[in-house]
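notes to self, project folder thing:

trying the whole complex as one job this time. last attempt i did each chain seperately and stitching them together was a nightmare. two parts in total, labels are on each line so i dont mix them up again. if this works i'll redo the older ones the same way
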Amino acid sequence: MKRLTLSWRLLWRNWRAGEMKILAVALLLAVTVVAGISIFTDRLQSAITRESHSFLAADRVINSSQPIAPEWRSLADQYRLQYAYTTQFASMVFAGDAMQLAAVKAVTDGYPLRGKLRISTQPFTTDTQQISVATGIPAAGEAWVDARLLPLLGISLGATVEVGEQPLRITRVIVEEPDGGNSFSPMGPRLLMNAADLQATGVIQPGSRISYNWLLAADDPQQLQGFLQQITPELSVHERIRDVASSQRRLANALGTARKFLSLSAMISVLLAGVAIAIAARRFASRHVEQVALLKSLGAGAGQIRGLYGAQLLWLGVITSLLGLVLGYGLQAMIVRLVGDLLPVTLLDPGWLALVPPALTGLVCLLCFAAPPLWHLPTVPPMKILRRELPVSAVRQYWQVLIGLLALLLLVAVFSRDWVLTLSLSTGLVVLVALGLLLAQLLLSWVQRYGNKSGNRWRLALASLQRNRQQTLIQTVVFALAVSLLLSLTGLRTSLLQDWQLQLPPETPNHFLLNVAPHQLNSVQQLMSDSQLTTEQFFPMVRGRLTHINGTEPGEEQRERTETLRRELNLSWTDHLNSDNKVIAGQWWDSWPAAGRVGVSVEQEAARQIGLQVGDQLRFSIGGLTLDATVASIRSLKWDSMNPNFYFLFSPQALDEFAPAYMTSFYIPPQQKAFINTLLRFDPTLVVIEMDRMLAQIQAIVNQVSRGVELMLLAVLAAGFLVMWAAVTSSFGERQQEAALLRALGSSRKQLLGSLWLEFSLLGLMSGIMAVAASEVLLLAMQRWVLEIPVRWHPGLWLWGVSASVLLIGAMGVFACRRTITTPPAVILRELT
Amino acid sequence: MLSVTNVGKRVTTSAGELEILKAVSFSLQAGTSLAITGASGSGKSTLLGILAGLDVPSSGDVQLAGQSLTQLDEEGRAALRAGHVGFVFQSFQLLPGLTALENVMLPLELHGVDDARAKAETFLQRVGLQQRLQHYPQQLSGGEQQRVAIARAFASEPDILFADEPTGNLDSTTGAHIIDLLFALNREQGTTLVLVTHEQRLADLCQQHLVMEGGEVVHFNGQQTAGALST
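result (full assembly):
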């Protein structure tokens, strides 16, 4: 206890003497930044995840072609989950003599668990005053429908339709379904009914194609996770768990990238803070060698000294961690306050788990960055108190580097939970440090050779760089490290934002139009051009099933496992490929050797699932007819391009005899949204799939995350400055002595100031060149392998990166060493003796 | 109190092995004072370091407070220093971040003394610095800093005090005051005093006088030496 009290007193005295400020500030910064980012991203992620779950109308959906076992409900109750069921199928809807195929969805109470169902009593309205959020589901005996079903059946709201044998009165039109318009299935307009009426319809017969969905949601994600873990082994081949990632690939990609970027920022901040901690600890250790010798002469043993310093570090760690957590909480609250109104989502309260990484950060940083330089202190020989020249054995530099590297790996792994990122970043940094040391050596040799021919100030500056060769090397590499990480992150942010914007350029198609009959093509195109709307290519489309592969029918189990074999597919043909498609195996039609035969090009993921290769023979069943085709090529494609895309693209004219309907995608500006009504009035059998809401949502989320990304950059900048400051001040003592001596020997302030500027600017130049080169490599690697976004060069970086480095390090160096110039040399010399 | 038998010290340098102490032997009774003088590089400081247990001899033995230093490990020697030894250094060796009071309290705190603060205040008062308790070393003159160092050395009430050129960094007037203070406290507490000095006046105040040259004891109490001596 006495030791703890003593170490506390020593810590306080060291703090007061300014010995621990950089160390503490670096630690505090690391913990604060990590806490801020961790809590903020935790809140943002859970909110965004919840928001994106509205696309599923739930947090998770268990989807099956068979009824879902009702006994699982009690397990869901145990985990306090909310749930609802939807049963979806295509069925003819009758109104008198009129009939129409509709996409029926029977739902139970609670639907939708996430997102909002918007309804109206005015068909085709766009007036928000007339649209309300449903607070329940259709009552038994009632149905809510897509507005376009009304003209298709020639009825109006309030009329009664029949689904199978069950009459249902239409009481509302559906304006927006959370889990609605993201399917190409032209099953027809939606009819939403109460699941209680399902039995009475009599449409569910053995062999019917029904999609059963169990919608699940939980306030506590852990509960849901626990439930899913328990239930997953029980699932049959019919059942699969769908989450937002599987249903919204595009959104999941954007979120995944943003998450990686945020963790990367946190990690780089910690890494920079770690370097600052290591430098500060090194300085602290070197300044304490004599203190330890004194303590030893006063009778303190090595164990006692290790205990005293260890306890001081522990105190420091605990205090800065606690303070960092509080400040981090404040930081994220500030971020939320700054951008809160702009957030597309309501933030949830932070979870306690978010506090674990920042709390660990402080301790890991101390243990791995601060402890190694201090470790040797107890081995200082007590005789050093009498003979200053005695050497002190330090923990070998390579051990310090190795331990630092291990800490780095640990931190990167914890933050990114991504081994590729961990290894690429660590390797990049090791290579950077090694090359940096080599390059700095070369530059110094060059300076040595040519420096003597230069003027007075240059000579002073170059001599100073030469004299403190090791110091110069370390500083150059540390500066280069800090600058390159800052540049990398800035560049990465720009790439990321550009990439996101590229993904969603203005006027990205936001609607799909399906079911256009060949004879309607010209009229539809005319309607569009009358409204100044442009369309993408019109694709002929037929619905068909893949029935045979190389003459064999796929088995039941293979069908259950492979969605492509189970459901009807949209088939099309085209003679030219859009830019978002790329042939990765086989040949496109223009160079296909079997021209004249029917060929098919298969999307790579579908080909992988089914196990198709170029040359395989496929048989399709299309409207009762069969079509044989040879696999001519395998294509990769970008599903998120919003252009019409198909798993199976046939050779030109191959589908003409199957009476295809046409489809396309097009952009409707928000103010022309009513054009959909024009289209449906022209022909109610047209199918318009609205993607604009989802796109707007993605855009909003991307914007939000971009804002978060920029704020993180500020934190990383702060960490970068801290490292540089630590590196500049680490040589402060020697510089002070040198400057005082030079002034005592007659150098003018102007001369010294000039040489300081030159010295630090040269350091900045060397570091800048290394940093820009390194960040270019790091950026390319990260773009290519980590974030998986298109690779871009950054020519501008070479100009402003190097200039910024020269100016920044020059100014920082002069500012840090200003005391050496402004204080009378006698005062400095007296203090130093 | 102190018994030195055939102590030698060899170090390896780039120029080969160097013998910096050669078969030094003498002994000192409790309560007496000894001055070690000699030219720079004669081995005075090395001998002082070995006597105080800061360093170990390459050969021979040192008995301090009844214990053989060569039989103790570093931790054991530290414990011995903690219980019996005090130091005054030429360059004062005050910690710049601590006030005068805290500098004096430091060894007491290290040894777990309960009333460290009161004791430190008493000793600072005894060296005439009661008005300077909260001053930092850089706010004190050289003489005042050395008085703080003396207070720190005596506050632990050591059995033996080693002083390495205690007046080396001070002008002659201040040096004289410091010498007076050192000897006054030494008498009051009955401490054994071993000091290394260049100053003849200071050496003359000690009961014993040992002169070193080239790592050897050449005179002990004015007599040329040819072997072991004792008082």
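what i see at first glance: The CA atoms of residues 124 and 151 of chain B lie 6 Å apart.
need to look closer tmrw
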